[in-house]
Amino acid sequence: MITKDMLIGEILEINEKYADILMEAGMHCLYCPASAGETLEEACTVHGIDVDEIVEKLNEEPVSSL
Fold first, then answer.
1. How many domains is the chain built from?
2. Count of beta carbons in the 10 Å neighbourhood of residue 54
């Protein structure tokens, strides 16, 4: 389960498809070193995005199994 206090880097490690959701919302700098250490809430605040909506969308995406 994704939470708003998780780091962007952690979220992307869980499921690569999460990057698509975040980029569609306006976060285009996901892979820069600074963003990997930001929480989802911090990144949403910087980009003017509703963190609760993003958390909901991320948690709707099935986790890919290897």
1. 1
2. 25
List the domain range (segments joined by +) for residue 13: 8-60
Judge whether 65 lies within some domain.
no
Report the distance separating Cα 61 and Cα 36, nearest Å: 20
Instruction: Render 9-41 in DSSP notation, one character per residue.
Output: HHHHHH-TTHHHHHHHTT---TTSHHHHTSBHH
Contacts for 35 with CB less than 8 Å, ≥ 6 apart: 8, 9, 27, 29, 43
3: three-class secondary structure by DSSP: coil
| pTM score, whole prediction | 0.86
Higher-confidence position of 27 and 66: 27
